[in-house]
Amino acid sequence: MKAHIIIINEYLLRLPENQPRQPMCISRFKLALLLARMAMLWATANTIGFGAELDELIDLPLEQLMNIEVYSASKFPQKKIDAPALVSIVTAQDIQDYGYRTLDEILNSIRGLYTNYDHNYNYLGVRGFSPPGDYNSKILLLIDGYRTNDPAADQASLGTDFLLDVDLIDRVEYVSGPGSALYGNNAFFGVINIITKDGTHYQGGELSGQYGSFGYNKERGTYGKQFDNGANLLLSGSHQYADGQNLFFQEFNAPGSDSGKVRHEDAGRADRLFGKFSYRGFKLEGGFVNRKQEIPTASFGQLLGSGGSFTIDRQYFLDLSYSGDLSDTLNLYAHAYSGSHNYDGDYVYIPPTLNKDRGRANWAGTELKFVSTYFDRHKLVVGGEYQNNFDLQAANFDVNPYLPYTESDAHNYRYSFYAQDDFNIVHDLALNAGLRYDYYNTFGDTVNPRAALIYKPWDSTAFKLLYGTAFRAPNAYELYYASGSSRPNPDLQPEKIATYEVVIEHQPSNHLRMAASGFRYQISDLINLTTDNDQLTFRNQAKANAWGTEAEIEYFWENGTRLRGSYTWVDVKQQGALTDGTPPNSPGSLVKLNLSLPIWDKAFRLGSQFLYTGGRKTLLGRGKSLEGYPVVDLTLRTDQLFKGQLKGFEVSASVYNLFDQTYFSVAGEEHCDNLGACLNGIPQVGRNFRAMLNYRF
Question: Which fold has domain 28-696?
């Protein structure tokens, strides 16, 4: 494509940017109507009586959450304190309590993670590292163990392009640190596994409607049931739409760019389907998303305010799996899957010229895994994977007159073998060690180990020494894509990381959990998006290292009040042709605080979230560094307004960026308009609002 690199199945060059300060675009009539409806509900509740059933909502998670088992750290269930990593969890109740609308918002609340939005795609930073030009390729994103990172750009979709409606999430497991010893590619900084709900969470139907700022609306219908014969079914579909905002870009403030102003040019919609059926160890699961997002930022040399530029992402996956015991000491897990990601982008240039960017990716694979407890004090995991990326197409061309810039049709494959031993040396000392071999026909093979020594002097306390390596393979987008403003690089090699970490976890009761870690990581052969002779290309040209610490605390009160807080400090240094020192978009500090408490005799629940992101450098030559900023969100919800037949109603109202904080994310290489002006920071969303009404029947 003319001025941007994207393609091969994935979305356009996604980099950090979000939406700016602006009024809550809700018509006075609609707001008055919404408040009137809520007042009616309040009056009805006072007439009927609130009841104390919210105790079920508040008290149920206490012991469950503090003693929850995690799967993603070792590919078998184990307590968090025994896992060979530091694991954080966000539950379905957290999603409700804090009004999370997207996976991006969920991840932004987790220790060590931070996100950015460029009014097209969402981007994830981990432990102070989020290089512009990266497509979230350094984190592995799973849905019930299915790899969602596509094989074209290795992108993990986090925003409205994510395959799953967040209301269907039972919990999110984040396993920090290198995970390639078990998972292979993309598990560079960690693994995020989305565990979905099933029919037992519903036992009937649910209808949901949402309305919010900027013309946002969303409707969802879900049906789930656990049948008497053991079969379990979940079906869900949703549609959402937003009109978009009025935005102002200071760097584009010129007469030829409409003084840097755009109006309602980031409208978007998304349609999703999800289904899950399980019976006697077999499970069939699939999802589909079709998302269109208009682009307001004049990226890749477009004309600001011209309109008509957008991206469309269509993704689906289908996963058939079986899990069962072959004997008292041997468990089998097998699954076969297929996936697809089609990308289409339209970009408007002058005189005007319409440029079209197209990407198609289709793949299929299988995995076989055995878990054995045959040997005393050992839990062995042995497995293998194969994936064939049989269709990776890319095309970029001007429409009229027709002028092609690139057209490619590639395919590749990979296979791997892995083994892990969880060895209980003595009653209070365990060793978890694993090794994985991966072969790619594009660059060859790579071997990645992991080791964790876990000492538990008491059941409530664990000391962990962790070491591991990981890799991120160059993808088809980086290897093959070319356009009028970019060129390919088929000689790229994998990025590599080695991480050393010390972890202390302490859980003296079911009310309190504390954890702290100190880590160091070293990255080599880092792939950077660079500009050379006015062309963009990817190169292995940098290395980075970092020191950091993280601390996390969770506390539960008897009355149902819940507190979760974390602090991350990290010092990243990068050496390369473009950066020598702290890299762009690397905040030194992250503070996160979540408080959820019952109010009004437990009839309502109030959730408050405080997030602080430290200052960050921007791209060299773009302007001054961005200042740190705090953001506060507030959510009030209840499912106890009614009794009897109307008991299934749940009402929720959220205000995001409560104090209308002005803040920016770091702009990437592609954020330059047709006049050559480039963004330094991209304005993020100001105060905005959402109301939600759910009904279960």
Answer: Maltoporin; Chain A (2.40.170)
Q: What is the rounded CA–CA span in Å between residue 128 and residue 583? A: 9
Is residue 363 within 8 Å of 151, Cβ to Cβ? yes
Phi and psi angles of residue 227, each rounded to the nearest 5 degrees, phi first: -85, 160
In this structure, the number of other CB atoms found within 10 A of the CB of residue 581 comes to: 10
Residue 678 corresponds to which tokens in the numbers above? 């480039």
Within a 13 Å sphere around the CA of 79, how many CA atoms are in the beta-carbon half? 16
End-to-end CA distance of the chain: 50
Q: Using pLDDT thresholds of 50, 70 and 90, give the confidence band for residue 533.
A: confident
Kindly tell me the number of DSSP H helices and DSSP E strands found in the chain: 7, 36
pTM of the model: 0.90
The domain ranges of the chain are 28-696
Please, are residues 308 and 347 in contact by the beta-carbon 8 Å criterion?
no
Asked if residues 260 and 251 have their Cβ atoms less than 8 Å apart, the reply is yes
From CA 470, how far away is CA 477, in angstroms rounded? Answer: 20
Residue 542: CB atoms within 10 A of its CB come to: 22
| Residue 197, SS3 per DSSP | coil
For residues 196 and 132, give the distance between their C-alpha atoms in angstroms, rounded to a whole number: 31
Total residues belonging to the chain:
697
- Is residue 98 within 8 A of residue 607, CB to CB? The reply is yes
Is it the case that residue 67 has pLDDT exceeding 80? no
Q: 8: phi > 0 → left, psi -120 to 50 → alpha, else beta; which?
A: left
Alpha-carbon distance of 70 to 87, in angstroms, equals: 8
Provide the token pair at 542. 């940098």
Give the integer Cα–Cα distance in Å for 569 and 520: 12
Question: CA-to-CA distance for 435 and 416, rounded, in angstroms?
Answer: 11
CB under 8 Å to 101, separation ≥6 — which residues? Answer: 166, 690
Each residue of 86-135: pLDDT tens digit? 999 999 999 999 999 999 999 999 999 999 999 999 999 999 999 877 88
Over 90: is that where the pLDDT of 179 sits? yes
Q: What is the mean pLDDT of residues 609-628?
A: 93
- Spatial neighbors of 345 by CB under 8 A, at least 6 apart, are 1, 4, 6, 11, 12, 309, 310, 311, 312, 356, 357, 358
Cβ atoms within 10 Å of 27's Cβ, excluding its own:
9
Decide if 488 contacts 476 (C-beta within 8 A). Answer: no
Residue 484 Cα distances to 36, 407, 413, 527, 609, angstroms: 56, 12, 29, 21, 45
Residue 128's pLDDT is 95
| Beta partners for residue 118, in sequence order | none
**Cα within 13 Å of Cα(63), Cβ side:** 1
The reported pLDDT for the residue numbered 278 is 97
Residue 583 has pLDDT above 50, yes or no: yes
Whether a cis peptide bond, with omega within 30° of 0, leads into 401 is yes
Q: 24: which residues sit within 8 A by CB, 6+ positions away?
A: 213, 687, 688, 689
In which residue are the tokens 């009030």 written? 636
- Per-residue pLDDT, 64: 62
pLDDT-above-90 percentage for the chain? 71
In terms of Cβ atoms closer than 10 Å to its own Cβ (0-12, 13-18, 19+), residue 98 is buried
Contact yes or no for 313/11 (Cβ under 8 A): yes
- How far is it, in rounded angstroms, from Cα 178 to Cα 405? 38
